[in-house]
Amino acid sequence: MEQFVFIIALLLIGIVLQKMDAPVDFSKSLNFFVIYVSLPATVLIQVPKIHLDFSALGVILIPWILVPIVAAIVIAMTRNHPPHVRAALLLVMPLGNTSFVGIPIVHTLLGEEAIPYVLMYDQFGTFLILSLYGAAVIARYETGGFHKRLILKKLLFFPPFIFLIFALIFGEMPSSAQPYLQLLSSTLVPLALVSVGYSLRFGGEIDYPLFTKALALKLIAMPLIAFGILFAMGVEPLALKTAVLESGMPSMITAGALAIAAGFAPALSAALVGYGIIISLITLPLISYFIEKFV
Hints:
This protein is mainly α. The protein has a single domain, classed as Na+/H+ antiporter like fold, CATH 1.20.1530. The protein is 76% helix and 0% strand. The chain contains 14 helices and no strands. Helix 2 runs antiparallel to helix 9. The longest helix has 29 residues, at 266-294. The radius of gyration is 18 Å and the shape is globular.
């Protein structure tokens, strides 16, 4: 309970800082440090603990399995809505906040031993899906070309992804480096959550019936679908719990920002990100409780 209070407190700090005279690009500065320092350090510590077995494969596969399922549901949900609304949901529904929100929430609910699976889900799932599927959605619904080389370059030079491959190849870092990596890694949760709080935006004209259905799909249906698939596959409990919780994370802030920048239902996109984070603080513990009853 204390950890959840801490998470909410950090989000509130970020929200309060919106009202302060913060430096220009304050949130971007926090994100830059998290992406280039905190997350790579976490990767170097946690990824060598992963055993690349069937369960790890299930964690990696489930976000990719969910993409076509969720996309089909979104297309059915938006059959009577304008293309820009469909584009927004296609972008923000399959992509969850599996790192900035995922790491602290899963750490709180399942413990540090679950973090390696979070990183696998985030880097081989969410990040690659954003780079490939996300770019395809934008190219399909926004005027402009599909720049394959730019996407590939962004993918190959993304720092956490580079360190993920490095950690998989070379394994555990020297013991002399561990305390310093741990210190850098410990900055991830507070900086990420303050950044999320600072980035939250609410309001605007919203189609509330569609918003409610989309939020139910993101926070309830997706983790339940993931649970059914992974349970049928026989994935071991910790991997299953981690992947299900990751599947139920609120919409990714980056995906929401891309949707807004492209003009894809900006108010709806911002609401799904903002309200989704707040409501997920209720749904994720409930999902965790549900899983414990069946696994």
